[in-house]
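Quick entry between incubations.
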Amino acid sequence: MLKILASRLRQGHRTNAFPEEVPPMPDRFRGLPELPGEPCPGGCRACVDACPTEAIGEGPRITLDLGRCLFCTACTDACPEHTLRFTDEFRLATRAREDLLAAPGEAYRVAGALEAKALALFGRSLKLRVVSAGGCNGCEVDVNVLGTIGWDLGRFGIQVVASPRHADAVLICGPVTRNMELALAKTLAATPDPKLVIAVGACAISGGPYRDQEEQLCGAVGAGIPVDLFIPGCPPHPLTILDGLLRLLDRVK
Amino acid sequence: MTSAPISNGTAIPLSEVPALPFPDFQEFIVEACGDDHRLVALFAGQDLEGFAVLASGAGPVLRVVRTTIPAAGFPSITPRCPEAHLFEREIAEQRGLKIFGHPWFKPVRYHRALGTPRDAWDRTAPIQPGVAPFYRVEGRQVHEVGVGPVHAGVIEPGHFRFQCSGETVFNLEIALGYQHRGIERTLAGGPHRSTLKHMETASGDTTIGHLWAHCLAMEGLLDLEVPLRANLIRAVALELERLANHTGDLGAIAGDVGFLPTMSYCGRLRGDWLNMTAALCGSRLGRDLLKPGGVRFDVDAARVEDLRGRLEATAADTLNAVDLIWHTPSVLARLEGTGRVIPAQAKNIGLVGPAGRACGLDRDVRRAHPFGPFQEAAIPGVNEDMGDVAARARVRAQEIQSSVEFLRWALDVLRALPPGPIEVQAPRALPPDHLALGMTEGWRGEVVHLAVTDGDGRFSRYKIVDPSFHNWTGLALALRGEEISDFPLCNKSFNLSYCGFDL
Ligand code: SF4
Ligand code: SF4
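Done. Structure below.
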């Protein structure tokens, strides 16, 4: 018992102060991309060819679909001009699929809050049912960590629950494999209306690294499920996930 | 000469791999496993070319043989060599072959055969995962409990079917395949642009373990000498991956017996270990750090200093949090004797990793088939033999110690190393008609990658064996005679990968 108390003193209070303070991010973290404003010289498309997920749009100017991006930097490595780079901006969640398209010179449309009626329902308490639908368990790792004392998701009234009957929202990870299609449909059907759907990770938004596989449906979007919040990344940083959830609930601006 | 020798991280021409008549191939496996060998991989290619890779306790060199598998199906060796049971089912499912006399002949991942209309179970209707007869215990007192695929919490999908009398579990059968996304199917014809990502996400919590195994296979094929610097950085990342997950697992085990101090501290500390990986490459899971030929991010002197400081602080807190378990009798009482796998059974089914080491099986790729810096820095063996939850916890605790010691050593070597290249250029073309082997000791155990190239230097077959492939059967055995309410605890003590199994 004394050992437990001594250990309690030693381990201290370690919940980070987000959203009041932003915890330090690793210097090599890759967030919102910064794209060249000018067309690339000589019709260069090195980044387009390097990308494993066809996330980079071919126009006269470069656009980047964060719903497909794995933040792998194959593109920035390939870019001979070093005009393409990733910033440390972690606020990446959006409310609409098309808002995930980053374009040069345009402000990124990060997620806004729920409409007043939904906010009245869910703003102070949001219960999540998590369905892992064919991903790599990476997104699950970074969703899970929000439940630890380092993040303490419960302080915002957000909690993972053990039954869809108790849930306000279904949080989906993974590209939705054909082998999970039925289980996901049943979970959605068992979650009472009105409900929200949150897509976490490139897989759940677009199929991620598996988007060409016939064994999957290209995420919640590909499976035709209406999504209320898109959280990009492979996996998204826990801060990106938490920021997205809090934006939805109008807890950060 | 009935088999060819192959070492970890090397490739050999296919012509050097003896092609045995199928019955001799099977006898070779049975005899070797009855001797001091174990089955590392057994798999079939598109054209029914079969391969077996075996390891022995005697030395680092493995043995490989091949054959042509009869399209009409074949008699099972599982009754004589139980560790082949899932490999045989996998061959049946992937190639649409019938296997006769297999004691439990069911699909593995629930998909159609690859590139052939044949089906081992003559199914014509669309395939649904988990839809096949489950093992049943009959009797008036017996009841059946089904759990999953969707679970309470943030957990991957799988279906668990228990046969119980009251609280007591007679049998647990585990049906997987829900995460199946066709990784091995796609790799044939590769490498592709998506290949490195598929390797990193074969089991995303083992990003380094899997990608390093792939790199070893590729570097074997291309005959590349990876700079020491790069190998040290890889090894640092691999041990950080182990530390994060072992710490998380010990916290989860504590949580499942309601011991909140260790659970809470370890939950946070796991994040601290992940953040150290993020300091290496920006990703908490070590994404995009490795590539064939080297690494993509250097670790300079300032970063070594930073990591060295964080290592000591995080290690001290972790050991302090874990230590509470051994000093709390009410926690130990719940762990000891629970979820036992008998060592003889563990050997029979081919358990690997910490679960195997908890049963006295000294299997660790870093020791047995060393790769990279593990060729110089010996990792101490850890062997418990009770095979219960407590033993699996103790193995993890000891490995936390040895990983910390390894990191101290590796970071010191890195600090003393003059700046230099972190990669060698990898040529594009792979040699034709070769077989390459890459193995690492991921935090769950042995990660095996086998690449076979065709006449054009493309993969004709690429086989991945995640440690979970062997170890899920261990969890099923651990539940026999246990109370069903101890399932979460037993499950956490294994903490296996669904996606790594399902591929
Ligand atoms: S960082 Fe994103 S856009 Fe760039 S190559 Fe990788 S996936 Fe494509
Ligand atoms: S988005 Fe990336 S991390 Fe998340 S499940 Fe898919 S592959 Fe894994």
